[in-house]
Amino acid sequence: MGQLVGPTDPATDARWSDPKPRKGFFTDTSICIGCKACEVACKEWNRNPRGTRISAVLFGNILRAWRVTSDLPELWMNPWATNPLTQLSPFATVAVDGGNFVRSSATKTAEEVFGLPPDWPNSQPG
Amino acid sequence: MANADCIIIQGSNMAECHPVGFQWVEEARARGARVIHVDPRFTRTSAVSDKHIPIRAGSDVVLLGALINHVLTNDLWFKEYVVAYTNAATLINENFRDAEDLGGLFSGFDPQTGQYDPSTWAYAESDGEHIEGPGGGPEHGASASARAAGDEHGSAGPPLAHARVLRDETLQHPRTVFQILKRHYARYTPEMVKNACGISLEDFDYLARSIVENSGRERTTCFAYAVGWTQHTLGAQFIRTAAILQLLMGNVGRPGSGIMALRGHASIQGSTDIPTLFNLLPGYLPMPKAGTHDTLADYLDAVGSKKQKGFWANADTYVISLLKAWWGDAARQDNDWAYDYLPRLSGPHGTYQTVMGMLDDEVEGYFLLGQNPAIGSANGRMQRMGMSHLKWLVIRDLNLIESATWWKDGPEIASGELRTEDIETEVFFFPAATHVEKAGSFTQTQRLLQWRHKAVEPPGDCQSELAFFYELGKRIKDRLAGSTDERDRPLLEVTWDYPTDEHGDPDGEAVLAEYNGYHLTGPDAGRPVSSFTELRADGSTASGCWIYAGVYANGTNQAARRVPHGGPGPSQSQWGWAWPADRRILYNRASADPDGKPWSERKKYIWWDEQQSRWVGDDVPDFVADRAPGARPDPDLGGPAALAGDDPFIMQADGKGWLFAPKGMVDGPLPTHYEPQESPVANALYPQQQSPSRVMFPRKDNLFAPSAGDPGADVYPYVFTTYRLTEHHTAGGMSRWLPYLSELQPEMFCEVSPELAAERGLEPYGWATIISPRAAIEARVLVTERMTPLVIGGHTVHQIGLPYHWGVGGDAVVSGDAANDLLGVALDPNEQIQESKVGSCDIRPGRRPQGEGLLHLVAEYVSRAGATVETDNVRITDPSREG
Questions:
Q1: pLDDT single digits (tens) B33-55
Q2: B378: burial class by Cβ within 10 Å (0-12, 13-18, 19+)?
Q3: Contact at 8 Å (CB) between B848 and B769?
Q4: Half-sphere exposure of residue A86: CA atoms within 13 angstroms, side-chain side
Q5: Which residues of chain B make contact with A31, given a CB cutoff of 8 A?
Q6: What's the Cα-to-Cα distance from B528 to each of A30, B509, B545, B548, rounded to whole Å?
Q7: Which of A20, B122, B130, B386 has the fewest CB atoms within 10 Å of its CB?
């Protein structure tokens, strides 16, 4: 429970009776006004239960379509998450403690975490 | 907007309510623009602006008028632009008297009818006379307001008999518009802004400096507004004030300039172009009025005189092409192109008058299409009670909205005012196709038509509006087949022959092609027209909406163009299609100086090319393409031929931008501050409290709170304003049935400042009851510094924010009390819009009473305030009250 990636399926761990493949998507946050539509889309797509808040958002700056994974520097932890991530994240993280941001550094690259070749999506995982 | 150097958002929470368009504000910011948000509330728009300036709801004319005074007094206006392109130099009739002279009234007011005779506002003529409207003088306000005449010039100026005006280009003559303007706004000072709007001298200075420093040859400022400006008893005048300021600063017709009217839904602009309004025909042609426009000649003369300047002089080509599109071969020269098949207006048949007609049992049936007036319209109780008088009610919607279920679970059932078994209204619900289940065009705020393809078939019995009305029309025609009754001929002979697909649904592109228009005769017969200039008044062309002519040019759906980024040009002209004639910026002749040269390299857009002897540039020139800047044709030529090379406002009857409106506004030629219909604040500028020509409905079911100075005003001491949230869609029909959106904003709430919470003992997240003379509602309390108490005339005025998305009913995922139940009905006389952005109320902790107790609570307040049908419904305020 509460893992981002790992040996078991987080959807099964979250007690989904009929777990479906999870989806993520990229959105341009430079025009963010905080309307939470991205969170709604994420929840609706993944059929997250009503009344839950997502755990974290993987944040990228100036994403390049051909090097998306290497442009993902930080995982922003949702302080109001229904299931806070308990597993130590392989990504660099940003958490909120009171009014302060608490940052941790990465132990793995995004390619390693997702098991993707460095030039994904130009080449597919072998 | 992306090209603006400064953006003032006032009367709109653009980031939350127009998030798609807001990308251009963000784009402008990324390029270094300053963004200022003027609003009663701090919102997400404020959060991403450079500055938020809180304002008292309804006081915008004071602020904008003070900015006008500031730029005039300190000589900060754009002289070359103003002298050449506006009516600043034009002389006004010597009998004109300003609101400054008459205690807040202009000359021509008739206290009996409550309306203006605008003849003294007219332009002066050389023989001492004034320039009348065509066809027998300026229309009296009584009949103009009855048609909501101000709304009929949505793409145009009102007509003038001719364009021979008197001008003093030194602007010194006391009867020039410029001097009248100076005198009119002389008392609109920063101190007045502080006292009437609650805006500090520092904030005013910041705002004024931002506009001034970002206007002129090199830079432009843009305004954006939405219903925060329109929904007032003088809403149209709010926008006129901004128009005057923008003209004075040279901010019209240039990149990053103008006043953006943000529209609330995907095609609200389209629904005024192809109108759902009672007083308009397609393309802003007025609906003919019984007794005034009895013949086609009368009507055409009233739309646009052949002797005035500009493109309204060609109104005959637009009207006759429309009649040919509608009645085909039955529209012939010998029957005035079937002009008599058009219905005539007999009065102001606006939505609120219609509801009162229901209450008087004058209206039998009602169609509601994607509209939820039980929640979304002012004075919700009146709306629901009106529907209970109908014989039949048809609702086409995605869900069983409250307007479809009030008869079993509405507030009046709970209060005991209505009993289901007594209601005789037969309610028919038709499920509607959503926007992804049908093809069609959206026309958005930039006048851009964008085509939408059908993604999936509508499920079950769901149907598009187009399919529904096509089928309804066929059935009515079948029912009437063989009738010899003259009144059935318009229906029997209307063209109704759209090709259908394999599901029997009519083809939306065929309708678009009809709007565009086509040649009927000659070698081009059947060929779509490419521009409205190809339309003729001899019956050889048909066009269902003249301003859309060109959207189907070359037989191609131009609205479906989707070149990435709109192509390489700065006007992004290869994305969609903009009316009229695919012009992206209106009045763009004004982007060049009087000699036809760009005002600056930085703001270059359209200019005169000497070699080609044509206007060229980054957009379709909004001008006669080969009219040289120095051309000065005889004004008596009339029409486009009479436009001088420095007449950029090609739809105005004199070719100029109107600082002063000699015609067209029924409530005054210059915007003037009046307080809302009900207000705890006295008018600081004039003895006259409210707009004298506002539309009022003195009725027991539409009472108002006593205004400042009247006994009982302290019973409803607070100001409330209504608004939308980004998570919900208007009256909730598209969002309160969706669990994921409902989860984000599950409950009705009110925003109050910490100071007001302390004053009234309101607990955060607890309940509050808000009481107006119309209703009492309950809401969760959000105590927030987003609401700022304002000091007005030495007293603190608290404002309460109320989202209006919830309603009482049993079918939605989330429900709650409706904010619009608190509103009364008082209208702007120009276009009959209700004042829903400001009202008076009281607030107290705790939930409201249930059942009959709720009625007692409202009645107890009314009785304590002494509110009667006369309260606030007096036209001329007693001047002695001023003291």
A1: 999 999 999 999 999 999 999 99
A2: buried
A3: yes
A4: 6
A5: 22-23, 26
A6: 43, 13, 13, 12
A7: A20
Average pLDDT over residues B597-617: 97
Interface residue B17 vs chain A (CB under 8 A): no
pTM for this one?
0.93
Between chains, do A35 and B727 touch, taking CB under 8 Å as contact?
yes
**Under 8 Å between Cβ of B828 and B235:** yes
Which residues of B are less than 8 Å from A50 in CB distance? 739-740, 743
Question: Which residues in B lie closer than 8 A to residue A33 (C-beta atoms)?
Answer: 15-16, 19, 22, 44-45, 47-48, 726
The C-alpha atoms of residue A11 and residue A2 are separated, in whole angstroms, by: 10
Residue given tokens 């949230």 in the structure block: B725
Q: Read off the pLDDT band of A91 (50, 70, 90).
A: confident
Chain A CB within 8 Å of residue B743 CB: yes
pLDDT at residue B147 in the model = 55
Dist CA B766 CA B762 (whole Å): 7
B22–A33: do the CB atoms touch at under 8 Å? yes
Which of B19, B47, B739 lies nearest to residue A50, judging by beta carbons? Answer: B739
d(CA B582, CA B449): 10
Residue in B31, B49, B724, B740 to test binding to A, most A beta-carbons within 10 Å: B740
- Give the contacts of B556 (CB within 8 A, at least 6 positions apart): none
How far is B677 from chain A, CA to nearest CA, in Å? 34
Task: Please judge whether B26 and A30 are an interchain contact, meaning their C-beta atoms are less than 8 angstroms apart.
Answer: yes
Share of residues in chain A with pLDDT > 70 (%): 79
The answer to whether the Cβ–Cβ distance between A33 and B727 falls below 8 Å is no
Burial of B824 (0-12, 13-18, 19+ CB in 10 A): buried
From residue B159, give the alpha-carbon distance in Å to each of B38, B123, B588: 35, 12, 22
- How far is the alpha carbon of A48 from chain B, nearest alpha carbon, in Å? 10
pLDDT over threshold 60, residue B348: yes
Which chain A residues have a beta carbon less than 8 Å from that of B743? 50-51
- Enter the tokens of residue B818: 């409706």
Q: What is the ipTM of this complex?
A: 0.72
- Chain A residues with CB under 8 Å of B739 CB are 50
C-alpha dist (Å) from residue B851 to B243, B415, B499, B809, B863: 49, 4, 54, 15, 19
For B230, half-sphere exposure in the C-beta direction (CA atoms, 13 angstrom radius) is: 17
Question: DSSP label at B184?
Answer: H
Query: CA-CA distance, B230 to B12, in Å (whole number)?
Result: 10
Which residue from B16, B19, B743 is facing A50, i.e. has the nearest CB?
B743
For A29-77, the pLDDT digits (tens) are: 777 777 777 888 888 887 777 777 888 888 877 777 677 777 777 888 8
User: How large is the angle between the packed helices B380-387 and B402-409, nearest 10 degrees?
Assistant: 80
Q: Give the integer Cα–Cα distance in Å for B89 and B655.
A: 13
Token duo for residue B404: 């479809």
| B813 shares contact with chain A (CB less than 8 Å) | no
Dihedral, CA of residue B867, residue B872, residue B874 and residue B878, to nearest 10:
100
Q: DSSP per residue over A55-117, as a string? A: -EEEE-SS--GGGTGGG--EEEE-TT-SS---SPPSSEEEEEETTEEEEE--SS-HHHHHT--
Strand partners, B506: B500
B740 touches A at CB < 8 Å: yes
